[in-house]
Each structure stands twice: as C-alpha cells, then as structure tokens.
Design a protein that fits this description.
With 525 residues, the chain is mostly helical.
Length: 525
C-alpha cells in the first residue's frame, strides 16, 4: 500500500474523521492501531511486523532499566544501553547488509525505526529525554504510519510529546495539510515518474551514450530523486499536519546551496542531524579522538591538528551515511565518502583561493560568485548521484569517463530529449512542471517585503517553518511558505489555485490501472 495509492487515500480518509470524533485522550490509540494496520498491509509479508515490535520491546525494557536504575549503579545503565544499541544496530546490519542469498525479506522502514529508537535510547541514557513508561506509546513513536516509510527521523525529546497530546480539529491545519499533500503528489506523480523514464533510458543503456547524454541522465536522476523523496516528505508532513502534528522538515531548497556542506544542511536534514548528534559529536568527545587531537596539535600545530582530528571523524561520519543508504560500495562512495572528499578539499584549499582569486581580480562575494557556487555544487552532487543510480561503482566510473571525454553540447538544442522515452506532449508536461517547481522554490526563499504581508503572516509563518527576517518588513522582509502566500488571497483565488493543481495531478499524474508506480526510492533504506 504505497502512500500514493488509492488504497492509502481510502485508509487515510477513514482514519482522519475517527481521529477527531473520539475523545482527545484516545486519539493516540487510533493512531497506534492505524500504524499497526498500515505496517501489516503495506509491508508485504504481515509477519515482518515482528521485527519492529521486537525492536520496540527491547528498547522499552532497556530504557526502563536505564531510567529506573540509580546513578549509584552506572554499570547496569551502561550495560542496558550497550545491549539495546547492539540489538538495534545489529539487527539492521544483519537484515539490510547480510543478504543470505537474497532469501530474507527486509522489514519496511527498518533504517528509520532503528534510528528513531536508537536515538531515543541514547537520549534516555544521557538523561536528556524523558523516559516513556507506556510501551504502547513507545510503539506509536517508533511506528507512526506516515513516518515509518521514509522518515523524517523524529527525535523524541524534541517532537515526541505531540504524538500523545490531544488535538482539537483545526480547519487551517487540516486544509494546509491537504494542500501540502497535493503538492507532494504533484512532485511524485507528475515530475518524478517522468524524470525516471529518461534517467532509466540512459542509465540502463549507458554504453550507447556519451558526453552530454550522460549528464542529462545524471540531472534527470537528480530531479527524479529530489521530487520523489521531497514529494514523499510533503505527503507525510501534510498527513501529520492534518492530525495536528508539526514534524521536522527534511528539505530546504537544497539546490540553492553554495557548498556541499550547505547542501547536506538542506537535504535529508533529519538524517544529518541524527548522524551529527549520535555519531560525529560522540566520536570527537571520545577518549580516542581527544588523545588524537592533543597529539596532532603537538606535532602539527593547533589548527592543523584540529583539522586532522575533525577530518578523521568526518570520514567515519560520511562512511556511516553511505552505509545507511546501502551496503554496496556505490552508496558508500556516492552518498558518503565522495562528499567527505569534497568538503575536505574545500576546507584545505580555501586559504589558497582567498589569496589567489583577489590577486586575479575575481570577486569571492556577490551574485555572480554565488551563482557559480550553486552551479558547482549542483554539478558535484550529480557526480555523486551517478554512483547512487548506476548498477555498480564500476558502471558509474565508466559513465563518468564517457561523460568527460566527449564534448557534444549540440544535442541539448536538437530535440534529442524525445528519444529518451517521452514524446513531445509528455516532455512538455515534464518541462512545465519543473518550471513550476523552480518558481515555487524561488518564492520559498524570497522574502515578502510588504509590512502588511509580514503582519498577515503572523503565527502562520512560524507554524509552517517560516522565518521572520525583519520585524517591520523594511529590510529583507519575511520568508513565507507558498501556502501562506496563497492564503493571503481571497478565498475564490486561493481555491482556484489549489483545485487547478489538484486537477493537474489527476489529469497528468502517472498512476491508475495498468500503471505500476515505482515505490519511493528512500523507502528502500
């Protein structure tokens, strides 16, 4: 039961009214029952639910031991924490990376519920998260049906309480949640599925293509990946918002990033936060790395010694991120160590460029420099995504070799796109949709300078993740979501916009009888 399917919409349409009809104290029970039902019907093999249930049981028992054991007995607390994390991460490693000949089915969302529960266990151990004494509530936190498929990775200490708090019906939250869901369906069904056709044509037959063709394939896959994953997040966030929840954002216009570090602060945000909180910072605070830092500073100086230690911890961090995406070396490179290499090279060579570029009268700041950095970052990301999509790391290397050794930009202007699986009508729909996505993305980062707009945004901006740049709107203005921009218009205008988008999805979306919509890419991780 994919969340883009008709069955999911029926499932959701049944739950939502029941959720608001029952007493608020019982709402979390409805969500728990719905989450179990969703997992059973969406996961293929109904018995696979025993894996997350077992993970929740282990986490509950171990965290109770941590939370109820006095500080005078730290050994029990530490043993409980080590046992819990070993079981959770060990199960993930065995099921995800040890294929056993391909005979073992992988539970739905295993990476997500494992990281959610592991983070909770660490936080209870460190005393920064409240202990959940009700195992059913812990089960809802670990298996909440919108997030179990592809995230976001919710941190209990930050957002866990809202799962169990009663929520009164709020017309604005429900309508805005539905609007965000429509936007997610637009990304997935209209853009991602068409980009996939062109990307698959090139990646599955890459020996027939060279030069610009390979870059077209890489860009098409990047568009596919972004609209697939962010579209999934829009649907998930929209569903949660209709229940009164505010989940952490997972994307923030990543292709406007000026560096790889910034890109990863905007792409799969909750994974990056989790990795830094539970892998990177603990490594730097460990005795091993503190000793390394002291020794490196003595031998190489304060700055170089600190960099060596930080880069080493980052190597482990990016290796872990790559492994999270999959056990194949192509993921370790394309989603992990290649990005580590980008960041390290950028940091090491920055002093050089600060000296050389001004001497060449090239400005390092300004609109032109920013545009160059954005294009450079997008180019580097596409190299990584080539590894991500290719059948193997070897295929990715061969593809990139063919991309760099042939210069044939003329195909960009010859209508050759029409040989990649989409006819003229389908390609036009795709191109128009990408333009719409680009314009919306621009609006999402463009401040509204009107004082009236800033005042009208009010609490809605804050509630939807907006950022007030200026109190009076005179300098910079207010960053507003497009949903809030549309909400400022008259009711007829705003509903015309949303119904137009809805019918655009219904008419041009790739779905329905005879069409096998591919599963969300990140649902496999």
């Amino acid at each position: 039961m994919e969340i883009t399917s008709f069955y999911f919409l029926c499932f959701y349409a049944l739950i939502l009214p029941v959720y608001y009809i029952v007493p608020r104290k019982a709402q979390w029970v409805i969500l728990l029952a719905s989450s179990f039902a969703f997992y059973v019907f969406a996961g293929g093999n109904k018995w696979l639910i025993m894996w997350p249930v077992s993970a929740i049981a282990v986490t509950y028992i171990c965290t109770r031991c941590m939370g109820e054991t006095s500080s005078a007995r730290p050994g029990i607390r530490r043993t409980s924490m080590i046992f819990c994390v070993t079981i959770l991460i060990g199960s993930l490693a065995v099921l995800k990376y040890m294929k056993f000949g391909g005979g073992v089915a992988i539970p739905l969302g295993i990476s997500y519920y494992t990281f959610i529960l592991t983070g909770y266990a660490f936080d209870v151990y460190n005393g920064i998260a409240p202990l959940e004494k009700n195992p059913a509530k812990l089960a809802l936190y670990g298996l909440f049906f919108p997030t179990v498929v592809s995230g976001p990775i919710v941190i209990y200490r930050n957002d866990g309480a809202q799962y169990f708090a009663g929520h009164s019906f709020d017309y604005n939250k429900v309508t805005k949640g539905l609007q965000r869901m429509v936007w997610g369906f637009f990304k997935k069904l209209v853009i991602s599925e068409r980009a996939a056709v062109m990307a698959n044509t090139i990646f599955d037959n890459y020996t027939q293509y060279r030069g610009a063709w390979i870059w077209i394939g890489a860009v098409m896959f990047t568009i596919q990946l972004y609209t697939d994953f962010s579209g999934c997040m829009d649907i998930v966030m929209g569903v949660a918002e209709t229940f009164g929840f505010k989940l952490p954002e997972n994307f923030r216009q990543p292709f406007f990033s000026k560096s790889i570090s910034e890109y990863w602060r905007r792409w799969h945000i909750t994974l990056g936060v989790w990795m830094k909180d539970y892998v990177f910072y603990p490594l730097l605070r460990s005795g091993l790395f503190m000793n390394m830092s002291r020794n490196m500073k003595k031998k190489l100086g304060k700055k170089a010694g600190k960099q060596i230690t930080t880069f080493t911890a980052m190597f482990i961090l990016w290796g872990a991120i790559g492994l999270w995406h999959g056990g194949d070396i192509k993921y370790v490179i394309g989603s992990g160590l290649l990005h580590w290499f980008y960041i390290v090279i950028g940091e090491v060579t920055l002093p050089f460029w600060k000296k050389v570029l001004p001497a060449m009268h090239i400005k390092m700041e300004g609109a032109g420099a920013d545009l160059f950095r954005i294009i450079r970052t997008f180019f580097l990301v596409n190299i990584g995504n080539t590894f991500f999509r290719a059948a193997s790391a070897g295929d990715a290397v061969h593809m990139l070799g063919r991309a760099f050794t042939t210069f044939n930009p003329q195909i960009l202007f010859s209508g050759a796109f029409l040989s990649l699986g989409l006819d003229w009508t389908e390609f036009t729909i795709f191109a128009v949709s990408v333009v719409i996505l680009f314009v919306v993305s621009i609006l999402e980062v463009t401040p509204v300078k009107s004082r009236i707009a800033a005042a009208a945004a009010g609490e809605a901006v804050t509630a939807c993740g907006g950022k007030s740049v200026s109190a009076d709107g005179s300098s910079g203005g207010t960053i507003m979501t497009v949903r809030d921009r549309i909400a400022r218009h008259r009711i007829v205008t705003r509903w015309l916009i949303w119904f137009a988008l809805l019918f655009f999805v219904i008419i041009f979306g790739e779905y329905g009888p005879g069409y096998d919509s591919s599963a969300f890419i990140y649902a496999g991780f």
